[in-house]
Design a protein that fits this description.
The complex is a heterodimer of chains A (294) and B (314).
Chain A: H1 2-11, H2 18-27, H3 30-47, H4 49-52, H5 84-120, H6 122-136, H7 140-151, H8 155-164, H9 168-181, H10 185-192, H11 197-205, H12 210-234, H13 245-253, H14 260-288
Chain B: H1 2-30, H2 43-53, H3 59-71, H4 85-120, H5 125-139, H6 142-156, H7 175-180, H8 182-208, H9 211-218, H10 223-245, H11 247-261, H12 266-276, H13 279-307, H14 309-313
Helix pairs in contact in B: 1-13, 4-5, 4-8, 4-12, 4-13, 5-8, 6-8, 6-11, 8-10, 8-11, 9-10, 10-13, 11-12, 12-13
The chains are: A mainly alpha (294), B mainly alpha (314).
């Protein structure tokens, strides 16, 4: 009897839009919500470094030299007496900017490639997917390193090059989604009523695979931040006077046996950021999954 | 199975040819083998050298000539070190193959063990521990893990060694080698073990909830047999795909690992070649890397066919 009552109540519940449902399910994923807040705070403090950082950017205190974490310098100082918290915040601007921009661009490329291949099929599918295969068999870090040597080590080129080699997974996933969605009745209805292919893809197909696309975009942010840090650590990426977290680690490598704090904090920042981005992705995955009970 | 194998092999040949052509052009247009002559007072020197090396031919011609040499194991002579490129590569391959093969084997074993355990004992304390560790493993830059591991195990406690694969005159498989091996292998594998074990856990859970597993249990088969023969065999199929796809990442990891542990392998060869702008070595390096990646993709595809009969029939 109680169960029936509940069923009736549910049947009379207010109608909710897709986005309301998604937001609701995401809100119940505690870890993802906390991760999102941490991430937003990180972005805010890094990009607000100009106002927040305790010392001016790159201000040296040669007499002080390297010191461990303490009252005046929370995260310690490096060999030149530069406050590490300040450097971390400014370096974060570059690491975060690269992560976000690469994810945005590669997701757009991947979505376009994947939806064209999946929707039009035949020759374009063959061609685009073979091209995707080609991009997947090249040794990534090596090609990235050479490309940056070729084009220059600026932030913008790093973004472009990382995005150019990062779209393949999104393309494959979007293609798979499009292949199944394009057989649905509502797509046929749209076609029958004379909608153009571009309109069908943009208005009827892509909104229905927004979930996997967004989840993959979070993975792309994480991947780009780690790849950038690796390249910069090896000396192929960001160059002085710019700083990123990975580049800070490469400066720390020489003397970390003495000043371990130089090694820990930049790495922890990367770890924290990527961890939060991945939790955000988990939350989105559950939120967009209609079978999710949350 | 034979038709399937032939088809897969036939598909990887054009992929290899096109990929190697693109990589060749990419390296050739970035690095000029005669760059070191740019400062010479007589511009004729550089032009003569360019003619001698056939650098003014169309790229396709140059590629054809290079590929013909490469097929016979001849990549020419480095314009920087004057060494035979094939010798440099061969020297690097020794250490690299040790790292890659041991690394891949260790990663597969650990990832499978962890994944299967976590799926069979879902929500146990150990499952949560593995899950937590894998989140951290995925989110951590591998080189940072390596640096911290060196700091702790080699610098502070001297338990393990962090320079090369051998010290002094030790050779082959001995205690010294065993003390050198763990840190680089761990650095190379930490990220892929984390992601592979997550993946195996998920696909194993899918398999364990499938109807055929319930049937097998209902027939009264021993749990061990159900898990290993019915569930694991099916859960291996997606696992093999991920392993193959991530092989390229393993190759990139080599550059990092060999750099921080000063191991003279392919990663080191790449590192010094790019810093010196050694075009011939880089061209050969790219080809070898692409061949290895394509080869392992092919192995995975064939394994896929063995594991899943439906695939080779379609």
């Amino acid at each position: 009897m109680m169960e029936q009552m509940e069923l009736i109540n549910e049947a009379e519940a207010e109608p909710r839009s897709q986005w309301q449902l998604v937001r609701r399910r995401f809100g119940r994923h505690r870890v993802a919500v906390v991760a999102t807040i941490v991430l937003l705070v990180l972005i805010a403090v890094c990009f607000g470094a100009h106002w927040i950082a305790p010392y001016p950017r790159g201000e040296q205190d040669l007499l002080l030299g390297p010191t461990g974490p303490g009252g005046k310098h929370w995260f310690g100082t490096d060999n030149l007496g530069i406050d590490q918290l300040t450097t971390l915040l400014y370096a974060g601007q570059i690491s975060l900017k690269i992560g976000l921009a690469v994810a945005l661009i590669s997701t757009v490329i991947g979505t376009v490639v994947g939806s064209i291949a999946g929707y039009f099929g035949k020759f374009s599918d063959q061609f685009l997917m073979r091209a995707t295969d080609l991009f997947l068999v090249v040794p990534q870090i090596a090609v990235l390193a050479i490309a940056l040597k070729k084009f220059g080590h600026t932030v913008n080129w790093i973004i472009v090059v990382l995005a150019a080699l990062g779209w393949m997974y999104v393309a494959r996933i979007v293609r798979g989604q499009v292949l199944s969605i394009k057989e649905k009745e509502y797509v046929e209805a749209a076609r029958a009523s004379g909608a153009s292919s571009a309109r069908i893809i943009a208005r009827h197909i892509l909104p229905n695979c927004i979930g996997p696309i967004l989840v993959n975009a979070t993975l792309a942010i994480a991947g780009a931040i780690i790849t950038e840090s690796t390249l910069s650590f090896l000396g192929f990426g960001i160059q002085i006077p710019d700083e990123s977290w990975g580049h800070m680690l490469s400066s720390a490598e020489g003397n970390y046996s003495v000043n371990t704090h130089l090694l820990y904090f930049p790495g922890l920042m990367i770890l924290l950021t990527v961890l939060c981005v991945n939790f955000l992705g988990d939350g989105l995955r559950d939120a967009f999954d209609p079978q999710s009970r949350r | 199975m034979l038709t399937y194998s032939i088809r897969r092999v036939a598909y990887s040949i054009p992929v290899l040819l096109i990929a190697s052509f693109l990589l060749f052009v990419f390296v050739r247009t970035t690095f000029d083998p005669t760059a070191r002559l740019a400062a010479s007072r007589d511009p004729q020197v550089r032009i003569r050298e360019q003619q001698r090396l056939g650098l003014d031919d169309p790229l396709a011609t140059q590629y054809g000539r290079w590929l013909k040499g490469a097929a016979q194991g001849d990549f020419g002579k480095s314009e920087v070190t004057r060494d035979e490129v094939s010798k440099t590569i061969r020297r690097g391959m020794g250490n690299t193959l040790q790292l890659i093969l041991i690394g891949a084997a260790v990663s597969c074993v650990i990832a499978l063990a962890v994944g299967v355990y976590s799926a069979v004992r879902q929500y146990s304390a150990l499952d949560y521990t593995f899950t937590g560790l894998s989140y951290i493993g995925v989110a951590m830059p591998p080189f940072w893990f390596g640096l911290i591991a060196i700091q702790f195990f080699a610098v502070r406690h001297h338990w393990l060694l962090s320079l090369g694969l051998h010290s002094g005159d030790s050779q082959g498989f001995d205690l010294d080698y065993l003390r050198h091996l763990p840190l680089p292998i761990a650095t190379l594998c930490v990220q892929i073990v984390a992601s592979w074990s997550r993946y195996e856990r998920a696909s194993m859970l899918d398999a364990l909830n499938a109807d055929y597993v319930r049937t097998a249990r209902a027939k009264g088969l021993r749990p061990r047999k159900v898990i290993l023969k019915h569930a694991l065999r099916n859960a291996l199929i997606p696992f093999v795909t991920v392993v193959a796809l991530d092989f390229g990442a393993l190759f990139g990891g080599l550059i990092i690992t060999e750099q921080i542990f000063s191991i003279g392998g392919m990663g080191r060869v790449f590192f010094s070649a790019i810093q010196q702008g050694d075009a011939y070595v880089l061209e050969a390096w790219m080809l070898v890397a692409a061949v290895l990646i394509i080869f392992f993709n092919l192995v995975a595809d064939l394994l896929y066919g063995v594991l899943d009969p439906r695939i080779r029939l379609s």
